[in-house]
Design brief:
Helix content: 25-40%
Largest sheet: 9 strands, mixed
Radius of gyration: 17 Å
Order of helices and strands: EHEHEEHEHEEEEHHEHE
Number of strands: 11
Shape: globular
Number of domains: 1
Strand order of the largest sheet: 4-3-5-2-1-6-10-11-9
Length: 239
C-alpha cells in the first residue's frame, strides 16, 4: 500500500485504549493500536499523535460537584498524558523511537511542548505524541489536535471515530442519516455537524488543513485510511 500523506496528525479517542471495558487501559487494545501505528510509520509517514483521555476523565463532563472548570480540564489533560505514556512505553518496546511533548509543564515526566523540538523530532523519524492538549483549560482535545496539526504543517488531520465519516445526524440512532463523502468547513459550522468542536474546525479551515474522518474498526483501519482505502469523509475548502 502507498500512503497519500507524508505527515499526519492522528487524533485517537482515549476509549480506543480501553477496549471492551470502555474505561482504563486494555493491554490488548494498546498492542493492536501500536502495531497499526508502527505499520504506518514503516510506510515512511511522519506521525504526530493526539490521544484523548476519555477512558479516565472527560474534563467538565466528569467534574464532581462544584469543581471549577479549569480544575476539571487540568485533570482531563493529565489523563491524556497517562495515555501518551502508555503508548510511548509500548512503542519503545517494539524498538520505535518516540517523543512526548506536553502542553502542561511536567519536566519529571516528559518534555514541555516546544515547536522547534517537535518539528525536529518528526524530521528525525520519531513518532511524536502530543499530550495535555493546548495546556490551557476550556479547549478540547480536538482543538489541541488542530493546533498541533497547524504548527507541525501536517498534510491532514485524521480523526478516528466510531462511525465511517460525517453524517447529518447520528447514524447510531437514526437509520436514515445521510453520510457526506466531502463537506466544507463552513458547512460543518453552519449545520453544526457533530464531528469536532467548532474551534477545531475553524482552526483547520484558517490553516488550510483537511480533516479526514474515518472509522477505527477492524484490521489495519488506520493503515488503510492513510492510504486512502477506507470509507471516510473529507472536510476541506471547496472551490
Amino acid at each position: 500500500m502507498t500512503p497519500v500523506f507524508k505527515r499526519i496528525l492522528l487524533k485517537l479517542s482515549g476509549e480506543g485504549l480501553a477496549g471492551e471495558e470502555k474505561t482504563g487501559i486494555s493491554p490488548e487494545a494498546v498492542q493492536k493500536l501500536v502495531r497499526e501505528i508502527i505499520r504506518v510509520h514503516d510506510l515512511g509517514v511522519q506521525i504526530g499523535l493526539v490521544v484523548g483521555g476519555g477512558n479516565f476523565f472527560r474534563g467538565a463532563k466528569n467534574a464532581i460537584g462544584n469543581m471549577d472548570r479549569s480544575v476539571a480540564d487540568q485533570i482531563g489533560m493529565m489523563a491524556t498524558l497517562m495515555n501518551a505514556l502508555t503508548l510511548q512505553s509500548s512503542l519503545e518496546e517494539c524498538g520505535t523511537k518516540v517523543k512526548i511533548f506536553s502542553g502542561l509543564a511536567m519536566p519529571q515526566v516528559c518534555d514541555t511542548y516546544s515547536f522547534r523540538k517537535a518539528i525536529k523530532a518528526l524530521q528525525d523519524g520519531k513518532i511524536v505524541l502530543f499530550a495535555a492538549g493546548t495546556g490551557s483549560p476550556y479547549f478540547s482535545t480536538d482543538s489541541g489536535a488542530a493546533l498541533r496539526a497547524a504548527e507541525m504543517h501536517c498534510d491532514v488531520l485524521m480523526k478516528a471515530t466510531q462511525v465511517d465519516g460525517v453524517y447529518d445526524s447520528d447514524p447510531r440512532t437514526n437509520p436514515n442519516a445521510q453520510r457526506y463523502d466531502e463537506v466544507s468547513y463552513d458547512e460543518v459550522v453552519a449545520k453544526q455537524l457533530k464531528v469536532m468542536d467548532l474551534t477545531a474546525v475553524s482552526m483547520a479551515r484558517d490553516n488550510h488543513i483537511p480533516i479526514m474522518v474515518f472509522e477505527q474498526k477492524g484490521e489495519d483501519s488506520i493503515v488503510k485510511a492513510v492510504c486512502g482505502q477506507v470509507k471516510h469523509t473529507m472536510i476541506k475548502q471547496r472551490g
